Structure formats: C-alpha cells, structure tokens
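Lay summary. Proteins are chains of building blocks that fold into shapes, and those shapes determine what they do. In this project we predict the shape from the chain. Here is one chain we studied, written as its sequence of building blocks.
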Amino acid sequence: MWNHEQGSAPQLAAPSFERPIDLVHLARQTLGDRSLEQEILSLYLRQAKTLLQRIEESPCVRERCDIAHTLKGSSRAVGAWHVATAAEAVEIVPPEHQSEFTRAIAALRTCVNAACDTIADLQRAH
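And here is the predicted shape, written in a compact code that computers can read:
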C-alpha cells in the first residue's frame, strides 16, 4: 500500500517458490476472484500439458524454443515459477547440446506434472 505520509512506494510480495503454484500471486492477478482463479487454473492445466507435449514431439529447435517461451509466460502469469524457470532452461539450450536438452525436458516435465497435480488438488477441494 502507498504510504503518503512516508512517501514510500508500495511493496510487492516476492514470488513464492514453496509450492508449484504461488497462490498469493494468483490471487493478486485475479484480484481475489476465486471463480476466475479456478477458470485460469483450468485453462493453464490444459495448456501446460499440451505445450509440454508439443515441445517433446517437435523436431524443430526454433519451434520448441517458441513453445517453451509461451509456456514460460503463462506460467509466470499464474505463479508457476518452477515451470517458468524450467521452460526458460529449455528455451535457451543450444541446438547442438542434445543431452542438455534431454535433461531440461525431464526437469520441465517434472515441474509441469507437479503444477498440474497441485491444480487438480485445488480443483477437487472446490
């Protein structure tokens, strides 16, 4: 909150990496609208799985980078920081480093699965 008397700018909470989805960040993004949160998480759940599959199946390095970039952005929007970091790692792997790409994909798959499992748990609770 802006403190007019002290002239200080509002403080934003630092991203939380404790859980696969930063629910505080998501609540800020949706202004606390729980139904909007659920809708966004449902869309993200489908998108994350689809994009991961497309990354894994694409023979084109440029296309994989573009898809990873898309996944990184949507993950940041919902507070899936681990997925965003792993997607960025996939995005920046040099084309000639296939073993590094394989490791980056495995890490991304783990992060996407954790985020999707968390979302499924949240949806069952609501």
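What the prediction tells us: Residues 1-11 have pLDDT under 50 and may be disordered.
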